[in-house]
Amino acid sequence: MREEAFRVEQEQERYAPHVRPINEMVDILRDEDGRGWMPHVAPWHGGAEARVLSVLRDPGPKTQEGAGSGFLCVENDDPTAELQAQIFEEAGIAPRDVTPWNAYPWYINRSPNAAELQAGAEVLKQLLGLMPKAEVVLLQGNEAQDVWRRLLKTSPEAVRGRTLEVVSTYHPGRQALFVRDPEERARRAQHRIDAYQKVGDALRGTGGQL
């Protein structure tokens, strides 16, 4: 997104057929109940046609319009996006395989509270309804795992009749490695790599345990 040509291309394709349903949903949800702004999903990703739904905590500063790209995208100019892009590539997962999302999809730039995560679960239910080809849900971090549990508890019909492999791991941000024990830091970093590899294996139909 640091490159103007790429960013302009994403803006021009904002309502391309594969992302239109999701980005139109975002338009409706922006400022709903006074919650504020929400970034679109970049057309660089698979949108409604993606086989992987990747869930983080909340949109980062580089997803903001003006200060950033205005999109959820692994090509955003920040360390978390950069790490995701790198590990996805190493695991053989293409950008169009994935739709990025957040446990709390509105911009707050802090950890969402319980009520906010419940609101996020309602939106996640809508999103899954727009992604009929989804096969894998990648939950990165505690909030992503929390919102998934809330979805299953309050809206089990959202996954009924679907075969979704759920892969959980640590958030790709630096804070996930803020622990004193160097062995624990290394374990968490490797766990993220292994989780992405498991997602790649699932897409290729090779399976595997994590």
UniProtKB/TrEMBL annotation:
Residue ranges annotated for the Uracil-DNA glycosylase-like domain, each copy included: 46-173
One Pfam family, short name: UDG
InterPro entries, alphabetized: Uracil-DNA_glycosylase-like, Uracil-DNA_glycosylase-like_sf
Residue intervals passing through the bilayer: none
Gene3D superfamilies, sorted: Uracil-DNA glycosylase-like domain
Protein name as catalogued: Uracil-DNA glycosylase-like domain-containing protein
